[in-house]
Each structure stands twice: as structure tokens, then as C-alpha cells.
Design a protein that fits this description.
With 216 residues, the protein is an alpha/beta fold. The protein has 2 domains: 124 residues, Rossmann fold (3-Layer(aba) Sandwich), CATH 3.40.50; 67 residues, Alpha-Beta Plaits (2-Layer Sandwich), CATH 3.30.70. It is 23% helix and 27% strand. It contains 5 helices and 15 strands. Strand 5 and strand 6 form a beta hairpin. The protein starts with 8 loop residues before the first strand and ends in a 5-residue tail after the last strand.
Length: 216
């Protein structure tokens, strides 16, 4: 929270760790009179931030954000490349991250890996139209995400998500990014390959480890 300064336009992430970051911003708003304007990466975060008294605006209404804070499902130690999207907000999260002058990730040690794809699948957001055909062009073993009711999970953007398992230990994130961008029907994917300034990793004993690209 020391990175958050008065007057900032602030990207507010989605997920279990980002939830605590938004809570902390709300606490500073209440206790210190901090003046920030947030851009939320999901409907859930928007509702949470509003309940805390954080002023909000839309991404379309700002030229750039000063800082975005978000979580990640995997953080590659040396590069700070990410896999995101298990929370379902990957497209809006990437749009907000790309609009930010500074992008900071928060997480716990379980999220830090030596190579992407070590523990989690890669989420890919696709249009509902002919989504089965789109899935046949995805990498690994794509599995349609379903909700607790057994119906397909629907993102805030009205799309479906396929989680791509079994990418293999030697998959090339850069090549896969380019391949996915060339598939009609793919709206976005959870590979975040650049732009992370630092990853702030909270340790079980309450200490903090700060990772930076190339010196993790």
C-alpha cells in the first residue's frame, strides 16, 4: 500500500489476494482520507470497492492508470511472466494492466514457479459462437469451465472459458501467445508476458519478498 499515493488512478485487481489489496485501499480512504479513483477488473471487484467507499470510473474514461495491483495464478520467478484467469477476469485484468504505467503483482509463495504451466492450466476466453470449434484449435487439453450448477461458466463479458491443461514442460509462452492471437473465436488468454514491475510475495511469517524481472 506504500505504492499507492494520493490522487492516483488505480487499477483494482480480481481474486483472493487482490481482494485484500482493495480492502487495504478502502481502509486508507476511510482512515487517512486518501483520494484515489479506481478502475475495477471485474463486476465483483467493482462491487467490493464501491462498498468500501472507493471512487470508481471506467477504463474508457481515462487515458492511462498510474498503478495497477493484481494477483496471479503463477509468477515465473526470473521473468515475472504470469498465468492469470482462474478467477475468470483475465480479459479485463489484461486491459487494465496494459493501461497502467506501473503494474504490480501480489501473491503468496505457492504462486512462484520456475516455469509457467507448472501447477495451473492456461485459461482462454472464447466467444460462445461455435466455441467447440474454437476449442479444437487451442493448445494442450482444453476443458470447458463450468460453474457450480454444471452449466458453462460465463465471464463478465458474456463469453466462455476453456482451461488448457497438459501444455508440457517445454512449451514456449511467446509462441503460444502468437498462436492464440491468430485463432478466430479467442477473445483473450491468461498469458501475461511483460509489463510487471515487481511481484510482492507475502511469506507465512509475515515478511515480504520482492521479485523483479531478472533478479528474482
Amino acid at each position: 500500500m506504500a505504492l499507492v499515493e494520493d490522487g492516483m488512478l488505480l487499477g483494482l485487481g480480481t481474486g483472493s489476494t487482490a481482494w485484500f489489496a482493495t480492502e487495504a485501499v478502502g481502509r486508507r480512504v476511510r482512515e487517512e482520507g486518501l483520494r484515489v479513483t479506481g478502475v475495477a477488473t471485474s463486476v465483483a471487484t467493482e462491487q467490493h470497492a464501491a462498498s468500501l467507499g472507493i471512487q470508481l470510473t471506467g477504463l474508457a474514461d481515462v487515458a492511462a492508470l498510474d498503478l495497477a495491483i493484481d494477483g496471479a495464478d503463477e509468477v515465473e520467478r526470473d521473468t515475472l511472466r504470469l498465468i492469470k484467469g482462474l478467477g475468470g477476469a483475465l480479459l479485463r485484468e489484461k486491459m487494465v494492466a496494459q493501461a497502467a504505467r506501473r503494474f504490480v503483482v501480489v501473491g503468496d509463495p505457492s504462486k512462484v514457479v520456475e516455469r509457467l504451466g507448472a501447477h495451473v492450466p492456461l485459461p482462454v476466453e472464447v466467444t460462445r459462437f461455435a466455441h467447440e470449434a474454437t476449442a479444437r484449435r487451442l493448445a494442450g487439453r482444453p476443458v470447458l469451465r463450468v460453474g457450480k450448477d454444471g452449466a458453462p461458466y460465463v465471464t463478465d463479458n458474456g463469453n466462455f472459458i476453456y482451461d488448457c491443461f497438459d501444455l508440457g514442460p517445454q512449451f514456449d509462452p511467446g509462441a503460444l501467445h502468437l498462436a492464440l492471437c491468430g485463432v478466430a473465436g479467442v477473445v483473450g488468454h491468461g498469458l501475461f508476458l511483460d509489463g510487471v514491475e515487481q511481484a510482492i510475495i507475502g511469506q507465512p511469517d509475515g515478511s515480504v519478498q520482492v521479485l523483479r524481472p531478472g533478479i528474482g
